[in-house]
Design goal:
The protein is 28% helix and 23% strand. β22, α14 and β23 form a beta-alpha-beta unit. The radius of gyration is 22 Å and the shape is elongated. The strands form 7 sheets. A 7-stranded antiparallel beta sheet has the order 4-3-5-2-11-10-12. The protein has a 6-stranded antiparallel beta sheet with strand order 6-7-8-9-13-14. It has 19 helices and 25 strands. It has 507 residues and is α+β, with helices and mostly antiparallel strands. The site of iron/sulfur cluster (SF4) has 11 residues, from α9 and α18.
Length: 507
């Protein structure tokens, strides 16, 4: 497998007035072949970044911030930058390093910028839905918006707006842009209470950056300080650190912050009723992300230790399913006093490619993503630690693959409880009908997968591995207890099609 993805030409996206324009049809229509499904885990959502730093190359800093957030979205990337007079957006389909070059970054001059990398959870992976989403405002300026999360009241908002929109993020931008007589900051305070769902948002106009987060704080959004006094906001602390910023605090649930020449100020638009996504701890965030006083890496080690206490087994070695299973496997091995080794190697660059695999390649399935290390696996009784099971097909292929190179026994340990309910807040898992945890008992799942034993961490055990309390977490995909009311599933799917023929996308 080539380790280079073919680059698509990054179509110029800047109109003379600074607004975003359509890419070439070829670029707009070409969607990447998604091989990441062979790893089957829940798909990431989106990453957002913003920076206010006079005297710095904010476009390049945003580029590096997006690099640190690339795991949250690999379909498209974009940056909006302002020099105080003109707002310019550059975005395209592809990975961050495919969308931007030194030349395109050099053209993005200014002292404030936002960036976004996107994974669309409900289709419509196209240039027009790439972000930042640009809108002219009623007052004659412009705004650009980047959104992580998913709104569940899009039909209601579309009626309120009385205009078609193809994504929930476009609806947000349009609703914020329509207030003619107030500042963007004031428009956010007025309008954000209309949004129901999960949203961690960065917005830029010619002069200011704003960042706001839903009252439940479902997904992360953090503030950092640069050594020269500039400010940064980002989905994860790793993106703050990559540009030299120090984590200051979260954007609080229900808070909007504004950054301009007067510094940073915050105000509430709603009281906080925090329900942080439990799956951020399990899978979504990078191990070096810190949240609520805890580290994702340590939380995952704790999950592994907890699994070893809940489900010990007579085994020879512990191996992770890379990457999210790695720290948990280390924790399991330490608690159980077993050796830890890499029994599976991830083919890192195969996740998204523009090359269509042939039918015979498709039949390789998981082997396109993971390769077993015979020297580690052969003749051994394995504890295999993975983050989650969605449909079960990948776990089944994984067990077959390990047995094919001589595994004596395969004991699967999972750092999430069974996923039995879909996520409506921005994580693409599967429909309820596709979730193996929705209908089958654990023993039936074990039989389907073909492993010697299977244990999912208990919900209490998982929560105990994090610094959060249960009532401060969203656990809906495990429990069906949705902290933000969601219309019935069928109605929800109908809402997703609210833009006539264009599926709305979550970010
Ligand atoms: S339903 Fe699951 S994945 Fe979605 S926000 Fe809640 S905990 Fe996270």
């Amino acid at each position: 497998m080539s380790d280079h993805l073919p680059c698509r030409s990054a179509a110029s996206s800047n109109a003379p007035d600074g607004s975003a324009t359509a890419a070439t049809p070829a670029a707009a229509d070409l969607a990447p072949t998604d091989l990441s499904g062979y790893a089957e885990g829940p798909r990431e959502e989106c990453g957002v970044f913003g920076i206010y730093a006079p005297g710095e190359d904010v476009a390049t800093l945003t580029y590096f911030g997006l690099y640190a957030l690339q795991h949250r979205g690999q379909e498209s990337a974009g940056i909006a930058v302002s020099d105080g007079r003109r707002l310019v957006v550059h975005k395209d389909m592809g990975l961050v390093n495919q969308v931007f070059s030194e030349t395109s970054l050099a053209a993005l001059e200014g002292h404030l910028a936002i960036g976004h990398c996107r994974y669309s959870t409900t289709g419509a992976s196209s240039w027009v839905n790439a972000q930042p989403m640009y809108r002219e405002t009623s007052a004659g300026g412009g705004l650009a918006l980047g959104h992580n999360g998913n709104l569940v009241n899009t039909a209601e908002l579309a009626r309120e707006l009385d205009q078609p929109a193809s994504t929930d993020s476009e609806l947000m931008a349009a609703l914020l842009a329509r207030d003619v007589d107030v500042s963007l900051e004031e428009a956010i305070v007025r309008t954000a209470p209309l949004f129901t769902g999960a949203y961690s948002v960065v917005v830029i106009d010619e002069d200011r950056i704003h960042a706001f987060r839903d009252p439940h704080g479902v997904h992360p959004l953090q503030i950092g300080r640069l050594p020269n006094g500039g400010w940064v906001v980002a989905s994860e602390s790793s993106a703050l650190e990559i540009v030299g910023a120090v984590l200051v605090r979260d954007v609080e649930p229900g808070e909007v912050i504004t950054i301009d020449e007067n510094g940073l100020r915050g105000q509430r638009f709603a009281p906080a009723t925090t329900h942080y996504c439990l799956f951020e701890w399990v899978y979504l965030a990078r191990p070096d992300h810190r949240q609520d006083g805890g580290s994702v890496l340590y939380a995952r080690r704790n999950m592994g230790r907890q699994l070893a206490r809940e489900a010990p087994v007579d085994a020879d070695i512990v191996i992770p399913v890379p990457e999210a299973g790695r720290d948990a496997a280390a924790g399991y091995a330490a608690e159980a006093g077993l050796p830890f080794a890499d029994g599976l190697v991830k083919n890192r660059y195969v996740g998204r490619t523009f090359i269509q695999p042939t039918q015979s390649l498709r039949q390789l399935g998981i082997r396109l993503k993971l390769s077993p290390v015979r020297e580690v696996v052969e003749g051994r009784r394995l504890v295999v630690v993975d983050d989650s099971i969605v449909r079960g097909n990948t776990s089944r292929q994984l067990v077959e693959m390990l047995r094919s190179v001589g595994a004596a026994e395969v004991h699967l340990r999972i750092t999430a409880p069974p996923i039995a309910h879909p996520c409506y807040y921005g994580i693409d898992m599967a429909s309820r009908a596709e979730l193996i945890g929705a209908d089958l008992a654990v023993e039936e799942i074990r039989e389907f997968i073909g492993c010697d034993s299977l244990h999912y961490i208990t919900l209490d055990g998982l929560i105990g591995a994090t610094p959060n309390e249960r009532d401060g977490l969203c656990t809906a995909c495990f429990t069906g207890e949705y902290p933000i009311p969601v219309p019935g599933e069928h109605e929800q799917l109908a809402q997703i099609k609210f833009d006539f023929d264009t599926p709305a996308s979550a970010t």
